[in-house]
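Why predict the complex rather than its parts? Because the way molecules touch one another can change local conformation, and only a joint prediction can capture that. The input here totals 626 residues.
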Amino acid sequence: MAFPIRAQIGRWSTRTVNYLSRALGRGSGTVVGGKVGLRVDPLLIQHLRPKQVLLVSGTNGKTTTTAMIAEGLGVHSTTNATGANMPEGIVAALSGARRECAVLEVDEAWMARVAEQLQPEVVVLLNLSRDQLDRANEVRQVAEKWRLTFANLPATKFVANANDPLVVYALEHANGVSWCDVPTNWTADAATCPRCNGNISFQSGSWSCRCGFAKPTSIMATLKNELTIHGRRIPLQLTLPGEFNRANAAMALTAIQVLGLDSPLVATVRISWLDSVAGRFGERELWGRKATLLLAKNPAGFSALLESLPSDPRELWIGINAEIADGRDPSWLYDVPFERLGTRVVYCFGTRRLDLAARLFYAGLEPRVVDDRDLVPSGRNKVVAVGNYTVFQEWLRESVEV
Amino acid sequence: MRIAVLYPELLGTYGDGGNALVLQQRLKLRGMRATVTQVGLGDSIPPADLYLLGGGEDGPQRLATESLRRKGFGKTVRSGALVLAVCAGLQILGQSFAVEGDDEFEGLGLVDAVTVRGTERRVGNMAIDIDGQFLVGFENHGGQTTLSQRVQPLGAVLRGFGNDGQVDGYETEQIWATYAHGPVLALNPWFADHILSVVSGRELQPLKTVADDLYQGRLKAFGL
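Output of the joint prediction:
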């Protein structure tokens, strides 16, 4: 494959800088090289486009759905498995070994630029809800940006969540949408119609507004232990926990079907075997404790996760930071129904552990605040450790797979 | 005590529901009871001792204002109800505010305050001085609010922007309003208790909880 000379230099700069960054132990080596590469060739993303491109975006489930699609496809595809989903991370992924197909997760706010440059075959849109509002300001601005971008991608096929009015709005002028009827429990950001500002009513699995804006007809639906795509039944039993992961898997399989690359049954089996994604869900050892690490960084994601928590273990660690990557305002803790934790023993970690502890206290729990590494509770039983973005990254670094 | 949360589906972007919870729990810990009613768009406005108005995006803020107008919320307040209004709520009770497509959308006119679109969006930590006591929080809004001479601000800005970089919110006989958005009462237990004692008309015994540690920690982080 021949690239313009500028892109070749860009690609090698990206690889070299990332190699050095990793070798010097300065970081995971994804973002810094991408920065240099983009400096050399601002159109590097476009110039590195492989034959086939599939993009995944949405507030929650990007990393897992991307992993599921890559796994389900079975062919070796280029992917940003560590979740580096802004242009630098995407450049870094595309600068690696040349492959025919790329499956990439894209940050919601960067979708316009990335999609315009890559002209993807398929775009998967999972959901849109409040997240890091100090950075994104309003969810609806993201939906508006998407709407402009997706109206101008005539050759792209979309796989999108029909139960999320903001996603449907973003695709109102797009062609070729395969709508998915997947469980979506968070609709608090779509109380008013994005088209007319009227009141959207949600009733028995459907939604509509008086102006005519309503849930579109889906080609796929999830049932208890199976899903249907175009009426065809496919059994689905995941190793990964939670209804939200079933929704992710259903959309991943629909995307694979739309891409027309593999038999859905083979892909389903591959996806059902996945037992951890980027350090999440699997068993690890953290500070001498057996732990399952989970990432939850906004109300919708946290609510879905609380619903799926197994009743055992009862010991739960929650860590909250408010770095730029987390969003600097932890007010959203009050949008998470922590009341559901009932009698669990909860330890609070992170720089905003007191914000969390106060939230849990008002939820009627008796949280314990871990002010210091020396105060980390010891024990032989397993813990579930849920962190928002930078806490999760820290726990991942501090832990090993067991 | 009857607490009514107005249109949480529209005005609840930043964990605003936390304020009702904090008030209810702080009463409960003192052996008193509060009922919290979530008032939806289809509901009429129930009688209550305290109404809570939260923050929201442009479209929802507009719809909430229209509905409050139609349901006669202005009359409810004029006949003596108490209100805590946060962010969008602060703007709604004023004369007019700017939303997408309309720079002078008519508010409920309960307070002589006019909000225009500011030069930039104000996003960040904020702290204000209310008669020597500090209120801490986070703001995220594009509005700039001017109060008439007769209206008293809630406090003087120490960190952040508030209404205009000088003062934040307003305080009338019946209304407390601030740009410190979301669960501001969770961060400021003293302010929650102040509101509770005004609404209940009695003095409350002090309460020591983890919320005090949080408040002290935030003050320290602000260098206050």
